[in-house]
Amino acid sequence: MAFPKLEAKKFASIRELNGISARTMEEHYELYKGYIGKTNEIQEKLTAVDRATANQIYSDLRALRVDLSFAIGGVKNHETYFGHLGGKGGTPSGRVMDQIKRDFPSYDAWLADFKASGLAARGWVWLAYDHDFNCLTTTVGDAQNTFPLWNATPILALDVYEHAYWIDYGRARAKYIDAFFNNLDWSVVEQNLERALAMQAVHK
């Protein structure tokens, strides 16, 4: 099984942001590095696990496979999250705005729903491009590996685990969500959408 050994990426957003402290971002980044380490550790253990003992009630193979989905989810979600933070917020323009207005009643309606979804979710909220239905959709996840949409590409990821905001806001998650949008770099979200649309074109 050829799987690359992962290394933590560097992100310009790991610093003091507007309403999100440097300590929060640095602690959050260390958590991401932990997901990198565990992904590599699990991949190494998978190469040696005895497949003859596989069982759906409990087996080493099952435990490793389930936890691998959580660890890799932690890597990919955080890379999207850190990658589009550090901007000046505001509203999107170009294709992202056009797509949101096409697929939702309005930008304001989408934003209100996305923020509300951030209060409803236990772990993550994603804006994703669904390749089957050719549209943007909002989805929630209670953990790194729960409720994924098959054949959909996340273009915006909001981490609503407590570690993302507790130091700065305590229980006031809504204030953190506002701070998240105040620091969003919509140009990166635009790039993510363009990549998703390019994938769509290849598969047609």
From TrEMBL:
It holds the Pfam family Sod_Fe_C. InterPro entries: Fe/Mn_Superoxide_Dismutase, Mn/Fe_SOD, Mn/Fe_SOD_C, Mn/Fe_SOD_N_sf, SOD_C_sf. Mn(2+) binds at H28, H78, D159, H163. It is an enzyme of class 1 (oxidoreductase). SUPFAM superfamilies: Fe,Mn superoxide dismutase (SOD), C-terminal domain, Fe,Mn superoxide dismutase (SOD), N-terminal domain. Keywords: Metal-binding, Oxidoreductase. The keyword Ribosomal protein does not apply. The keyword Heme does not apply. Coiled coil: none annotated. GO terms for molecular function: metal ion binding; superoxide dismutase activity. Its EC number is 1.15.1.1. Residues 92-192 form the Manganese/iron superoxide dismutase C-terminal domain. It comes from the Bacteria. Belongs to the iron/manganese superoxide dismutase family. This is superoxide dismutase. It comes from Eiseniibacteriota bacterium.
